[in-house]
Amino acid sequence: MMNSGKWLAAGTICLAVILAATWIAPAPPAHGQDKTKSAKKGTKPAKAKPLGNTKNLDIKADQLQSSFSRDAEELAGQYAEAGHLDKAKSLLESALVVNPQSPNIQKKLEQVKEGLMNSNDSDIEVNAAHGWESSGVSVFEGRALRIKAEGTYKFDSGSGNLTAAGFVEKDPGQDLIVGIPCGALMGVIVGETKSGKPFLIGEGLEFTPKDTGLLMLRVNAPPGNKNSGKIKVSISGFVQPK
């Protein structure tokens, strides 16, 4: 199914490029050339061949543009009704290349994108006192997803008295993560061979991963903390149960 989607997207994009090319104006003939270099002494320079009238061709190109946009919208709607939102998205994006000023195509594309972001919804709870926990879903490179976090928890560092140095970051895998607010929800993508860099989620985040792997979650708190409570997290979009 994924291969058919790729071929569909490639075919429609190629057609869009071909259609767009019909409106590229030809380059004007060069002027001011050095006649001594372009023609032999004593001979007249050759006259430029006049451009042909493309009025009829332009009409056909406009008709083709309109036909493709209309058919792409109709087929995208059928894909959406069948639940194949990714294929509907590819078709509408191709139609938008050909007809970028169409508000109807833009509106439908936004609706399909929103549908994709709300699909495959998964709900979990993150214990504020624990370290990294599995979200239970895999995410994919280049595929957008949405994360929402709700609820409150009690923060207790459990560190006792601190010096002016504050909390000390030692092991990024266990201790406080530099650059992310203390107490904030954060995530990291763990691939088969390597782990990515932890990133801030906070109360919500929409993003497109640069890596494929298991999504891990935790609160940015020092080791030995005595936090209590759980955060409800909802994950949707291009995700797959692990």
Explain what you see.
The protein has 242 residues and is α+β, with helices and mostly antiparallel strands. It folds into 2 domains: 85 residues, Serine Threonine Protein Phosphatase 5, Tetratricopeptide repeat (Alpha Horseshoe), CATH 1.25.40; 114 residues, Jelly Rolls (Sandwich), CATH 2.60.120.1250. The chain has 5 helices and 9 strands, in the order αααααβββββββββ. The chain has a 5-stranded antiparallel β-sheet, with no helix packed on it. Strand 4 and strand 5 form a beta hairpin. The longest helix is centred in the first third of the chain and has 27 residues. It is elongated, with a radius of gyration of 28 Å.
Task: Give keywords.
alpha+beta; Jelly Rolls; 33% helix; Serine Threonine Protein Phosphatase 5, Tetratricopeptide repeat; five-stranded antiparallel sheet
Structural domain count: 2
Task: Indicate the structural class.
Answer: alpha+beta
CATH topology of the largest domain: Jelly Rolls
CATH-derived architecture of the largest domain: Sandwich
CATH homologous superfamily assignment of the largest domain: Peptidase M60, enhancin-like domain 1
Contiguous low-pLDDT stretches (5 residues minimum) are 20-33, 35-39
Which outline best applies? elongated
Strand count, sense and barrel status of the largest sheet are: 5 strands, antiparallel
Mean pLDDT comes to 83
Amount of helix: 25-40%
Distance between the termini: 20 Å
Number of strands: 9
